[in-house]
Amino acid sequence: MINSQTIESYKTSDFEKLMNSKIKITLKKTLKIKSTEEVGNVFIGQIVSLGLSANSPHLPVSIDFLIENTDDKISPNIFQIDSIEI
After folding, report:
1. What is the CB-side half-sphere exposure of residue 3 using CA atoms within 13 A?
2. What is the pTM of this model?
């Protein structure tokens, strides 16, 4: 499991290993999902892309996460993520 302390030190290459894999993400705050009207902070799906910082060394600052069984994508900042389970 990747917790909120270790995720802040992750580099782009670390996240690339998780791309397109089924993972469980837990956010620090709840979100409302548009298509299902559900509210929650634990989602299962996959990371489809990364948002990188503008300045070198271009570290990840957010992830685009496609929620399983929906067309919804969330883009939490890495500081909003409590944990990631593979």
Report:
1. 1
2. 0.89
